[in-house]
What does this fold into?
Amino acid sequence: MEQSAQQARQLDSAPAGGVSPFAAFGLPGFNGPGPSPAPAPEPRPILELEGEEYEDELDGLGDWVDDFLLPVYGAEVTTAAPWCPRWQEHDGVVAWLHALWLAYQQHKDPEAGLAGMFVWHRDFLIHAMAAVRAPGGPLSACMTSPDRPTHRLLPGPPASTRSEKATATDPGPGAPDEHDEPVS
It folds into this structure.
């Protein structure tokens, strides 16, 4: 019992030098005296941004894609791996590459450890590039050969039947009622 009481007193007392032995684990309430650091702002998906905030994020993403991603991981453009020099106009591609960029920033940070970049390659890069550059993917109507640069946005799928039924049952303001007689 005495040993348990002694351990409790040690845990309750402030550590020497003001640094908690738990600080390295980032546990809230265990970081020692003083206010805890403000949390980093949470990243938002690029397609949720608007106006200047979207343009600034797209500029940063474009620099990363053009200066790092494509020169290192771009590979050859083929029918099996299409690309589009105007990729910024493909919302699905922008979303994929932005998520890849955010993951890159997180995994290159020293806090990610020595295996951080391996995890990024394994869990993010391979999958994202395969999805973006798939033969039937979002760039499939674009450039499949460097000698034939093309750009075409594919139409998205039609609205779901649920959306169509909601529109059909609720024609909206100003629409004639089903009981109204047509005016000739």
